[in-house]
Amino acid sequence: MEERIITSQECISDGLDVLCKLEPRFCHAIEIIDEIPLRRASGGFDRLLSTIVSQQLSVAAADAIWKKMKLARLNKIQKIKEASDQELREVGLSKQKIKYVRSLANAKINYNSLKTMPTSEVISELTKVSGIGNWTAEIYAMFSLGRANVFAPGDLALQEATRLLFDLADRPSEKKLRILAKDWSPWQAVAARLLWSYYNHQKKREGIR
Known about the structure:
Elements: H1 9-22, H2 24-32, H3 45-54, H4 59-71, H5 77-82, H6 85-90, H7 95-106, H8 111-114, H9 119-126, H10 134-144, H11 156-165, H12 174-181, H13 188-203
Helix pairs in contact: 1-2, 2-13, 3-7, 3-10, 9-10, 11-13
């Protein structure tokens, strides 16, 4: 069965209509949020590298590092291969992140083939690369490939938004949120966008780049 791809705001609207019927609390979130962004992004090395940079950082911190990397042209495969660890540290990368970006630069990923792979295979293929875990692979599948039925339950902003919207005592764990999100099929990625927007509304800050 061919997977649904999110390509426009119309897709977001279709998904929100379904989600509102599945879960009344989503209707409440929709009512107080002005717009749910499409958040589609280009794919390839540059985007995957940017997502790795974002791991476990605030949006502001990740944006600052990414800006420095682009100015130094360290968003290019060859430039990363040629750069010293010191040059990579100077743009704000930690010792661990330096290992990860080098690992990605040396990986033989066929980005075009990812476009036609089932989402489960995309995640399996990407997580073979050191430094790419489920979160990074799921975010890439969601935004760069436009997959409609993928979620990122390890995302702290999604966990916190779920806690707030569903009035939970604690943030749900990654495992619990993954189970909960299955109820939002086939529009899990629209549910994620809605929850990030709800997080932004409640916390007055972005939860995702």
